[in-house]
Fold these 2 entries.
Entry 1:
Amino acid sequence: MTPWFDPSLVFVGGAWRPCASGETLPVIDPSTGVEIARIARGSATDIDAAVTAAEAALSGDWGAMPAFQRGRILARLGQMVLDHIDQLAQMEATDVGKPLTQARNDVIALARYCEFYAGAADKLMGETIPFQPGFTVYTLREPHGVTGHIVPWNYPMQIIGRSVGAALATGNACVLKPAEEACLTALAFADLAHKAGLPPGALNVVPGLGAEAGAALTAHPGIRHISFTGSVATGRRVQAATAENVVPVTLELGGKSPQLVFADADLNAALPFLVNAGIQNAGQTCSASSRILVERSVYAEVCDRMAEAYRALTTGPAMADLRTGPLISARQKGIVERYLAMADPAHILARGQLAPDLPPGGHYIAPALIAGPAPDHPLAQEEIFGPVQIILPFEDEEDAIRIANGTLYGLVASVWSRHGGRQMRLAKRLRAGQVFINNYGAAGGVELPFGGTGLSGHGREKGFEALYAFTTLKTVAAHHG
Ligand code: TXE
């Protein structure tokens, strides 16, 4: 997989150029541990140049462009993404270590975000407000200006789609800082956007380390909004930095999302979702369902059936396209192994299988299903971010809610039950930004507002809701007598 662009450059003002320091960072293929490319080590100087380019775009062609025209460019971009599906999927699979089919799905999701926000660009409207006689009052939705986007390594294309897509549709100019572990598709996206007709400076991409390029972006006084997806620890730093400049921030910080399985559930329908929501992308998913809560009377049966499904899971290189690939890095593998070491070996119900002859430098972990640590155990409380699921029993609806809501997170939850009243009650009482009934994740749902409460963060991305987040509201009160 050789990118069609030079990945060691930054993309600023519609052109590729070396970063100011001239230094580069390695791109490691997590499936093999081998370096496959170099990316720029962007710094505060590059971020500053990107913000300047974005400001120039706003006072030039991009800022003057009518909304429908922005939509057309996004629509073209969506088509170009689909036209490059093979290259982009291979690039993402190699860079992130995700199985090729999952990487292809991410390409399709990126195209869907472009399509959705293309269609929405000229449909965001203000209101007229009934006021006193002699006045006409209305609201205008205006772009923030230059928006900063800090993206993690687990779903680069999807997260870029949901945040940059909405920001461009509403007329902001973006500076994107992808994760140092997986930058390639961010750079590819910028190249395609340029070719789709996006004016220079409307989208700038500066790869680099979080503590350098990332911190410089969040602290830059020219940035008017920050969208961040990543860890709680970094999210806190990002929010503190944006507080200095008093700019709004959207934080999506992962979770410990539960699926609640009641005795009356259709277990055949539930089972694939119970397992897949935990192991997709090797569990490195913000909305991963890492806790399965099961009504006591069917607990043993669900444990057995999930264990059987786990034993059939295979893990191997991204290009082998098995159920799970490697973890992103040796560091992430170490984190997951430390959590696994906390488990009582007798509680590990099942492990998946590692494919034979794995490349020795890859960061592989066989998925693990762990039964019954106490709900307050770190395994049942903390985000592990690996292919590990915890399965716990509950006694009744009240107990289920207590355990489900008993972490500091609140991103996603699901309820498996045929009982309509229970579905509605739980949908109201579960602490989460999204609740699914008899499904999980709704296949990604680009149309569906997404975000969390508690340590999972605040603000909403995806769907139409993101358009409100990426605009600021102006009220105009005209007195005409
Ligand atoms: O995250 P970071 P890491 C969780 C997951 C994982 C843990 C650590 O539990 O084990 O976080 O992952 C940039 N100012 N999630 O270390 O540090 C960084 O360059 C500005 C959940 O990768 O949060 C990258 O682009 N930016 C999550 C992005 O922040 C900074 C997805 C994420 O990195 C910065 C990823 C700084 N000071 C990890 N420091 C999810 N919600 O899905 C780093 N960055």
Entry 2:
Amino acid sequence: MKKIGILTGGGDCPGLNPVIRAVVRKAHTDGIGVIGIRNGWKGLIENDTVALDLGAVSGILHRGGTILGTSRTNPYKNKENVEKVKYNYKGLGIDALIVIGGEDTLGVAAKLCDEGLNVVGVPKTIDNDLSHTDYTFGFDTAVNIATEAIDRLHTTAESHHRIIVCEVMGRHAGWIAVHAGIAGGADIILIPEVPIDIEEVCASLKKRRERGKLFSIVVVAEGAKFKKGQAVTQEEKLDAFGHVRLGGIGQNLSELIEEKTGYETRVTVLGHIQRGGTPTAFDRVLGTRFGVEAMDLAKNGKFGYMVSLQGNKIEAVTIKEAIGQLKTVDMDLYNMSKIFFG
Ligand code: F6P
């Protein structure tokens, strides 16, 4: 093996730069060159690349985002683009491609692997909803940011005797809501996996007030839906992978709570603050371990495989296994969190 390529696709995520750095450092140790592909699959369609040497990855460990840029480009939307990807892959003279992404980006990687490209996956998403890995990097950072926000919302909610609804990310799975909600002492946590029963939410808030607690914090994942309702979206347009832009459930919920309980209610949407900025130590370590192991998988010809965290070990699983089914919230954990509702 002489040269490998690396790209980051989908939503950015704290910990991407530690993975890139680890891949380049390990490759350098093994005498292998690294080509960075800019902006996810878009860069491979357009042959937009950059050489990654030790200097290029110096000082990026603590930086959020990705030095390679990213996009939600899906080459399979257009046959011609798939041909361009294959042509450019060949033209770059790389022996393998390390793909860092979530279910969409890795879905493309799995298809390209079937078409003969030597692909290795690294799981990435703040949502933590990829299967066959206990955690994805970026999740811990997002949870810490959301927890700090909930702590801050507590003092203002308490001072004003208000309900504050905090909307966090989580398209299909409520991992961020559950972890940050438990860590921040939320009084109600609402997730995509369990339809929202507004009467139950209001009854719980009333019960809490009756026991003298004049404020409450409700954490809701952006993908949560009301019973019989649909996910709340910002626009109808779909992205290249068929996803809508979520957002707005917090506002709807807060209006309903105020209307039904008469308690003054406010909403805070954390949005992309959860994805930006410096990764936590946990995410830096996980990203570093993933990067080193991904290089080893590539060197050993384990194409079609993805690095994963199982317990405290980094293991290889097939990309297809990982994207086959989303990892939704562990209901034992969610039910445990309910002990602290109300
Ligand atoms: O997939 C990660 C994620 O942050 C989701 O939680 C969220 O729905 C989505 O990305 C937002 O995507 P974008 O940055 O493209 O608006």
